Amino acid sequence: MTAPQRQFRYQAISPAGVGVSDVIAAADRQAALRQLSRAELVVTRLVETDAGRPVQRAGNSARQRRERLDMFRQLSVLIGAHIELLEALEAIHKTFPVGETRDALAAIAAALRRGDRLGDAFGAALPGLPAYLVALLAAGESTGCVDQVLREAVAQMLLEAAARRELRRALAYPAFLLTAGSLALAVMFAVVVPRFAAIIGPQRRDIDGLGGFVFAAGRIVHDHGVMIVIGLAVAGAMLVGVSKLTNAGSVAAIIGRLFGLRGIIELRERANWARIMALALGQNVLLLDAAALARSCVTTGALQARLVDAERALRSGVAVADALATNNILAAADISLLSAGQRAGALAEMFGVIADEHDRRLREALRRATAIAEQLAILVVSTAIGTIVLGLVSAMTSVYESVR
């Protein structure tokens, strides 16, 4: 009797170094892996699905990120202390409350007992885990360096968490200024301007120019304030929804074009790319496989295209430094480091140095952008309030002159 077919959604890297994602039907997980292996695909994630939908959805909440970071940190410490992997998983399982992370630990342990590979077990139990981390876990298992991979994974997760915190801190003060200024403008339009309009009385209909504009705007806000608030709330909700449904690279590109942050976004992307190259090469992953892994974590379309061109050059036998220099991926100083590192057999270390340097540049760029954003917020709010005040003063002056 033929075993019933189950659906599996997979993410993999093709022999050409291109990321692919699709659904495959197989009797079980091992059969699905064999099919993909025959197709010469390097599987980075394989999740059983129900009618084409993942059983467990990936989550990116702050709580889930903290729990995953704690899990990897504890696992790194225990494996580094030469405790067996299954024993370490069972020990960590008891430290988490009932929830997704605890269930994931149990699923990973069960998968390993079935004979699944380490990377596949983590990728299936932890949806949303970066593809490079799944592949590095598989590489660490094959080379016997799981503890080192886990330490580097924890370091990378800490770096990403620190970058998120720094970005939030950078945007907090400008956001506060804009919020406070918007509230002040709302109060002026909803309360102050209508009172001035009542004082002036019917004569306000004869006021034109800046004063007439301020009174007209105040009347609109006073009469339709609730609808304006509802409209802004709906627009905000739609923006959040679109950001969740749209590809992250598209969102990043839109934000970069709108707010002039393209340079900062590319710095962050290059830092992550160089860090993953360092991690992969440090785990003896082949150069082309490492390049494909690192590129799969890049969301900026222009940078991705240049990396694809660099990979083609690498496949044709061009040196790493030359391939990256030809496609303008790194600065001349970084290319020089890579050239020296390749000659000395320290390519992974040089990619780590480049990642650190890009992180430093990113922090400096964020500080500059924050300073500019603060000044712009102050300028916008003060200009708007000054316009209202000037409009009211000009209106009162016009009424006074007409009375005279």
Explain how this protein is built.
The protein is 75% helix and 7% strand. By secondary structure, it is α+β, with helices and mostly antiparallel strands. Strands 2-1-3-4 form a four-stranded antiparallel beta sheet. It starts with 5 loop residues before the first strand and ends with a helix. The model is unreliable at 50-59 and 243-256 (pLDDT under 50).
Please outline what is shown here.
The chain is an alpha+beta fold. The chain has helices spanning 29-38, 62-80, 85-93, 100-114, 118-125, 131-143, 146-200, 209-245, 248-259, 262-282, 287-296, 301-315, 320-326, 332-344, 347-403; strands at residues 6-13, 19-26, 42-50, 53-54. A hairpin with a 2-residue loop joins strand 3 and strand 4.
Shape: elongated
Question: How many beta-strand elements?
Answer: 4
Could you name the ranges where pLDDT drops below 50 across 5 or more consecutive residues?
50-59, 243-256
Can you write the helix and strand succession as a string?
Answer: EEHEEHHHHHHHHHHHHHH
Radius of gyration: 28 Å
Straight-line N-to-C gap: 103 Å
Helix tally?
A: 15
Structural class: alpha+beta
Helix content: over 70%
Largest sheet properties:
4 strands, antiparallel
The largest beta-sheet arranges its strands as 2-1-3-4
* Mean pLDDT metric: 76
- What is the beta-strand fraction? 5-15%
